[in-house]
Amino acid sequence: MDTKLVMSDEDEASDKLSRQALSFFLHLVVALGTWVGLMLVGYAVQPSVPQAFILLLSLVVPAGVGFLFLRAKPEPMAGHVWLAGVIWMMIVSLWILDMPTGPNACNDCNASEKLTRALFSFPRPSGLIDDNGPFLCTWPAAALIGYSIGARLAMRRKD
To answer: CB of 56 within 8 A of CB of 120?
Structure first.
């Protein structure tokens, strides 16, 4: 009888873990889908928007979607989606730091200058990863962080 109780507890724990993982990835897809929609609409309407404004929108729009989505159906795992954004940013940052420099590719840059110029195009683009650092790394990570902020705000107000 004790073994059935232990197996029952293990089954409940694995069911809870699978629900949490599924919830995490669904919220990840919603956050990134919001960002992709923002990019499609933004480039269709006005393709020459400043990068700082796009970064701001990449935070604010997913935060609004996360807030509205979580007001309707609270889910604690939505507040943890920011971790995926930070991990993604760290992976791309390591890739950028490992890239060789040369003419038109951040020649004589130190590590911090390489990252600032590649990920934020500040003060000017680096030439690394075809100047797509914000699009490939910074803006999606900002969208995931923004979604988590909106989700946390919605769940805080719900309590």
So the answer is: no
> What does the domain layout of the chain look like in residue ranges?
2-158
Other beta carbons within 10 angstroms of residue 159's beta carbon come to: 5
Q: Which residues pair with residue 105 across a beta bridge?
A: 102
Residue type, 138: T
Quick check: bond before 123 cis, omega within 30?
A: yes
Which structure tokens are listed for 158? 């719900």
**Structure confidence by residue, pLDDT tens digits, 76-122:** 899 999 999 999 999 999 999 998 888 877 888 888 988 988 888 87
Structure tokens at 96: 């950028």
Instruction: Tell me the one-letter amino acid at 73.
Output: K
Distance CA(95)–CA(147), nearest Å, equals: 25
pTM value is 0.85
